[in-house]
Amino acid sequence: MTVAEVDPLIETLYRFSDVIGVLLMGIIGGTIARQRGYDIVGFFFIALFSALGGGMIRDVLINRGTVAAMSEPEYLILAFTGALIARFVYFKGKTWDYAQAHGDAVVSGLWAATGTVKGVAYGLPVLPCIMMGVFTATGGSMIRDIVTGRVPEVFGGNQPTVIPAVACAVTVIVGHHFDFLAVAMVVGPLISIGLSLLGFWANWRVSARSDWAPINDTAAQIAVLARRAEGKGREVGRRFEPARLRAWRHRQMEKALQRRIEVEVGRGVSRRTAEANAEEFLDEFNAEFPSAPTEGASESESKLDFGVDLAGDSYDDYGANAQRREREYREMLDRILADNEATDLLISRLMKKYNERD
């Protein structure tokens, strides 16, 4: 794969920007070394990693010839010069923060383009070319952060740097594909610089939420929708169930509850207390199991407003097995309600479970 001819003026601008970028990154690395309390050796090493680390990673991965930083000694001289400048001048304050952010955005955009172009020149596939641009733009800062004992800023929660580099690299690759490499080498860095400055001025940050999991969230939403659909299905099932049968169940449960009250009174509990306990139990029970309409039930038969349709709470699905289980459940419930002793035992157990919850 051959690289399209680039205007000499653009090459000159890139070369000049590359030189300025190495010097600026050397100063930034030296300033960070000062903040960490390092000596002059630390200044030199941190400046070296900041200014030349990304290019070194790129050239080692491409494995074509000598690493540029070693074959062209002016890069080392510029990086060490930046370290010395940072050693003799203490850069700090708002002005320095703005200058560092803007300079870093410009240099990262230009380095992303040069790294991508170098990958294209050596015939690498599309994805590795993008990675060469990203490593060139951000590799130095990653090495610097690791050496100084910090979590690399490119790993999230900070001003985005990888996303602008990827945008620049993609622009360069598309431009090369359509034989507009010279244009792409201008447009790509501009896009990267714009995205980086957007992150600085608009406080744009890459989310680093550890609990963010869209698959889990989607599953939870589906579960909610399934419960709603299940509730709708139960309502449909109750509407199709004979009203006379539900009214009979309703009356049987009320009678059993009345007998329960009489048993409590016989044990020495005042009738008012027994009825209050029953009402409290029914309120709690009806809150969990919505009562079904009781057409045909008289006002006297609904004294306690006991509208619980126990047979309607098993509409979990609509397959043949589920329908068979529902039918067996309703038949078993009807046999229990037809026997006063069995119904009283059911009420006693339900009351016991209710009291245990307290």
TrEMBL record:
Classify the main location.
membrane
Q: Which InterPro entries match?
A: Gly_transporter
Q: Lineage of the native species?
A: Bacteria, Bacillati, Actinomycetota, Actinomycetes, Mycobacteriales
Q: Name the domain of life.
A: Bacteria
According to its record, how does it sit in the membrane? Answer: Multi-pass membrane protein
Q: Which UniProt keywords apply?
A: Cell membrane, Membrane, Transmembrane, Transmembrane helix
Q: Which family does it belong to?
A: Belongs to the UPF0126 family.
Name of the molecule in the record: Glycine transporter domain-containing protein
The places in or outside the cell where this protein is found are: Cell membrane
Got a GO cellular component term for this one?
plasma membrane
All copies of domain Glycine transporter, residue ranges: 17-89, 104-176
- Organism encoding this protein: Corynebacterium lactis RW2-5
**Transmembrane parts of this sequence:** 12-34, 40-61, 73-90, 120-143, 155-174, 180-202
